[in-house]
Each structure stands twice: as structure tokens, then as C-alpha cells.
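Morning - beta-D-mannopyranose inputs below, output right after.
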Amino acid sequence: MGELVTETNEVKVKVKKEKDMKKIIIGAMVVAAVMAACTTQKQTEPEKTVAQQLMERLDTLRSKGYMFGHQDDPFYGLTWEYQTDSSDVKNVCGDWPAVMGFELGGIEMGDAKNLDSVPFTRMAEEIIKHYERGGIVTISWHPRNPVTDSLKGGTFPQGSAWDISDSTVVSQVLENGAKHELFLTWMCRVAEFLGKLQTADGQKIPIIFRPWHENTGSWFWWGEKFCTADEYKGLWNLLQDYLNGRGFDNLLWAYSPGMASDLTEEKYLERYPGDDRISLVGIDGYQWGTKEDFVSQLDQNLAMLTKFAADHGKIAALTECGLKNLTDPTWWTSTLTPVLGKYGISYFLVWRNYKEEWFGPSPSMPDAPYFKEMYAKKNVLFLNEIQ
Ligand code: BMA
């Protein structure tokens, strides 16, 4: 009996041990299964691209107001050029623009400086700096005319983006066109520059990329009169597909035709590359005539644009604007902000300040106090308010 008991006990102990082991194994399996599920879940949820993160940031910022942007801000102003950390805007209001615009024209030729004499090395440095201080960067590109570019050095606009002497340029750039190969080398140079826009630890910088703008006018070789809607879209896709293929998931693509009288959605859509290709919808609109005409056009265009953006899940912006040389010093607060304040746009950007032509403020100019008044408005955002 004793032996039996002992044997039974041994068996019991063994069985218990086995049961315990089973429990442990089952427990471990459950834990492993849960962990595997979590891991699988993580793997199937794709990481947001740098461009998507920027899109979310722009969307969030819209609840605070709309941002001020300035082209070529840190390079030169009305009375200075190429100093360190200088800016006409900062010299007026003490803060950097939230958005800074940069221009690539000339990169396609392998030039060291852009069409406005800005060295590309300096441009890359300032883009990185602005990103690191919390700012937002947008890039435009006015490439030379690939058909007449050999006329470089001729009297403006020969060979430039504004050279419209040949109306077949877009078709020649597209696949099977005579200038396609040349254009591939141009895009390659753009890609090389964009590839440099990284922080020291290798993070790609988010960029609002705005090529082929003001295409509904006819002053650039990609303008309305010089290509069909399909050719224009072909040109857009060529560049976008090329840069996507090179892995630039940090570009937020912006479409910005010109302001127009009675702009309809139908008109806006005529050359629109498509919802799958565009994240930011804009218009470029300057005041060339009277204040009344500008205000009524801007008002009508922004009403259409912001409705379109809401319906299509896009961000809207006044991608370029200005009153040349601020001939009405009160313009910022008497003309511009009363219209912009009505709409949920992300930003407006005024063009560059140089001696012959300026669109931003400058300390010595009579519009400076009105610019400061605009700066003080809660819903007009500068760098300090978006960091
Ligand atoms: C235009 C003018 C030109 C300049 C071009 C690209 O509006 O400012 O002088 O070359 O933009 O920046």
C-alpha cells in the first residue's frame, strides 16, 4: 500500500507538475499570441509620412488662425543682404514669418545661384534653420524654358520661365518629346537639391512643394495658352511621379493657379491634377488695380477655394499675394486681413523684398506700423505662435 501510495503520490505530483507546466505553456502562448497580435497590428498600420504629418500640423494650426509667409525672407531686404539671422519682417515686428518661401529656378542648369542670385548652399542652410526653429517651408520652381534655354544670357525673358516664344514646350517635355531627356536631367538636379534638405540626424524636412503655378495665366511656358489641360496634367504627373519614385515622401503638393474674376469650381478643376495628387489648394492673387476690385475678387475666390478644400479634404492657402511697394501703407489691415479673416485658410505668402520691388514690410517704410498692427492680431500667426 505504502509503495502504491508513494507511487500514486509520485504520479499525482507528476500529473500536477505536467498540469502546471501546461498552464505555464498555455499562459505563455496566450501572452505570445496577444503580443503577436499587437505587433501585427502595429505592422499593418502604416507610419505617417513626413508630408502627412505636415498636413496634420497645418490642419491643427487652422483653428488658431492663419499664418504669415514671406518669400526669400532671410536672404535680403530693402537695405541689407546676406547677414546672419536677419529679416525685414523680424526687423519690423520682432518675430520671424511662420512660413518662408524659397525658389529653385536655376537649379536645373546646375547653377550655383538661383535666378534671383541666391546661392543654393545658403538656401539649403536657411531651409534647415527655419524648420529647426519650428517654421514651415514652401518651395516654388521657375525652371528655364527647355526649348530656348540655350539663349541663356539673352535679354530677359529669353530662355527663362517667362519665355513664351514657343508654344510647344510642354508637349516637347512629355515622354517621347524632343526635350524629354533633357528634362529628366533637370528633374534629377531638383531631386539632388531636395535630397539635401535634412537635419543633421537625417530627418527629412517637410516641404510645401508648389511647381507649375499660375498656370491659368499665359506668362509662363506652362501657361494656359501653351498646353492643353491634358498636357498640363502630364507635366504635373511627370514631375510628381519622378520625385515620388525618388522617395520624396516629405513633399506636400500644392496646386496654385492665379486669382480670376468669378472663379468657379468647374474652372478651378479644369487643370487640377486630381485629389489623389494634391494636398494643398491655393491661388496666387496680387492687387494690381483698385482696392475694391482686389477685395471683391479675393473674397469671391477664397469663398470658392475654402469650400472646395472642405469638400475635398484639402488645406487652402493664399499661396502668393501682395501689393507692389505697399503704395497704400494701410494695406495690411485695411485691405488684406478683413478678407482673410473671413475664411479658414492656412497661410498667405507675400513675395520678396528687393530694392526695385517689394511686397513685405521694412522698418523704414510707412506701412511698418500697419504691419505691426496686423502682427498684434491674435488670428494672424507668426513663428512664435506656431512653435
Ligand atoms: C517674380 C519676380 C522676379 C523673380 C521671380 C522668381 O515675381 O520677383 O524678379 O525672379 O519672381 O522669384
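Note: Residues 2-44 form the longest helix (43 residues).

O.
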